[in-house]
Amino acid sequence: MALIVQKYGGTSVGTIERIENVAEKVSRTRDAGNSVVVVVSAMSGETNRLLDLARGIDQNPTQREMDVLVSTGEQVTIALLSMALTKRGCPARSYTGGQVKILTDSAHTKARILDIETERMRADLDAGRVLVVAGFQGVDEGGNITTLGRGGSDTTAVALAAALKADECQIYTDVDGVYTTDPRVVSEARRLDRITFEEMLEMASLGSKVLQIRSVEFAGKYNVPLRVLSSFEEGPGTLITYEEEDQAMEQPEISGIAFNRDEAKLTITGVPDRPGVAYKILGPIGESNIEVDMIVQNVGADDTTDFTFTVHRNDYEKALGLLERTAADLGARSVSGDKKIAKISLVGVGMRSHAGIASRMFECLAKEGINIQMISTSEIKISVVIDEKYLELGVRALHSGFGLEGAQEETISS
Amino acid sequence: MALIVQKYGGTSVGTIERIENVAEKVSRTRDAGNSVVVVVSAMSGETNRLLDLARGIDQNPTQREMDVLVSTGEQVTIALLSMALTKRGCPARSYTGGQVKILTDSAHTKARILDIETERMRADLDAGRVLVVAGFQGVDEGGNITTLGRGGSDTTAVALAAALKADECQIYTDVDGVYTTDPRVVSEARRLDRITFEEMLEMASLGSKVLQIRSVEFAGKYNVPLRVLSSFEEGPGTLITYEEEDQAMEQPEISGIAFNRDEAKLTITGVPDRPGVAYKILGPIGESNIEVDMIVQNVGADDTTDFTFTVHRNDYEKALGLLERTAADLGARSVSGDKKIAKISLVGVGMRSHAGIASRMFECLAKEGINIQMISTSEIKISVVIDEKYLELGVRALHSGFGLEGAQEETISS
User: In what order do the strands lie in the sheet with A374-378?
Assistant: First the structure.
């Protein structure tokens, strides 16, 4: 008998009909002989309704009371889902974060989980009950209600799975798994049966927003097998785990292609090539809370250097102003920028043991006449920046060039 | 410095604007040098919205989960009111029933309060904070959320006032106090400055639905001075206390006139006058969970007796059917009934020391040509049943006959 933690987000429990649908899925999982803990979010729209009420009173309401307010959203869902389960003859009991209890620090609206008491949950599970737990919330040492911040229900599910040593943590979403790339761009994109935590983190941070990064990190840290599935369709979804020894040998080189078009590029040329120059350029950017993603530095002629980096497009104008001031200070030759860029990344743990991925990537893009403006690599990722208008073409060429449509044999997930 | 418990019902906190209005009142009470504990209900309409969600899943949902669900209504209000107070520079902190904690038995949806922890509240009050407590809810020994049933917020307020030994428990409603009778029937009806717990109980149970009976009983039991005031208008309201020794002498004979028209009368005549006959008649009625209000028995001629009683109009047909069966068993002469009756009651603790109230009452009604069908008396109440069509006429005649328009000097409540 396996212990499964299932998490259903706001869209999955957005109406009474959908809550009934969730009850059906939970009930079937239990009937198959499993112990089940369910974590739910607020019904979609409910959190915004509550936030609107608060803003009607104060644009910056006290955070302790914000947590008291918004935590009611999940409390409504746990009660309704428990009713729907009980109606089906499936014994169930709801728990708020405080009742479990999920102990957090006192950082209201963005609290972190410190500890989870499992004794009471164990007793319920031993008695054959399904536990329905409110996601996204906890309680601090003083008994004050806290919330984990937006998207925190995924974290609750993973933390419960870790505390209970669950066999699997299943995250139900509106997609049926993690894909080799965005199916809206490449129609041949294929659902992955498996992906490693590291790959998932690279995919997620690059814009494949299937899971909250924090919950993936958490699952990786505590080695909780994580599965992404659809609330609305049947299917095995995608299992996120550490690579197993015997699988590492036959790991595909590339698992997926991530991309985004929300960055902008800034270049400063003819900077005197002295120690500390990188700090002088990026210091003011960082102090203005602008996040820098890729950084490339080339040595130029006559003891000067060229320096290029990317920021979020929303920060482009601000960063350009700062950079122009720095250029004047340093006596640099010129400052330029470009908002119409896109980043494409190949991600795969197989990359570690296979040489030549980078050159094949560049070849693929060259064949399509796509010029590469920047390159950056990590152990399991290669990213390039290209002209935004070639994004779709580039992603499709790479997807096909690395045989992602069907190279990997489909394996049935258990 | 006085300790005041204030309770605001659903209508008083029904919109953001009204919550701001409540914050204003609470803030002023604190600024006047008082310690304040506020008890609030769910925003009007919210409880019904939640009940509709539950009914969408199950017509008879599990009661434990009903409590988890509906208790979110008050939790939303405590958060919003605390925000509104904090915005005004009035330090405030919200508490759910479980956080206080208000310990109840485990009778979900109709729990009774067993104990209230005051330590944490005292610390907040000592620190100058206003406490905003969710009405209507508590927590049982096992940490499960319970609710006190509809109208339970009044009970929460009184119980908190008793536990904290508050100087006054103020119940804010949509009326500005307790009246000598219903102002919709008698335009000269006058707000009472004071009324005793006993009188209030008689008035409340007779249809003056200003306060929940249970909360009045509770306040009387723990001797908590209770004040009824309007959320929307300024004014001293009506103070409900025990009569004080020095006041008893000048107590008015009659404090108010209560009435209702939701009863029906049933009569069985020519019943053999034997011991146990009353039980034989009323036994089947009680077993069918029909509540009997007034009972009158007259000895008739030839060793038989006539027996009349009243029930709620909704139970009339059912009671009549039962009575006809009993009549056949007992060999009674006839069974008759009347749904078009009304009951009028004079209420007043002064009645104890003044003879002749009853005869003056009958004289008043006789002058208007109103026939009295039944009479029943208690220590502080005389009730008569008359033809429904004379109800308004009778109430007005009595209100004027006993000088209720202005006989009592207005005293300024402190």
Answer: A256-260, A341-347, A381-387, A374-378
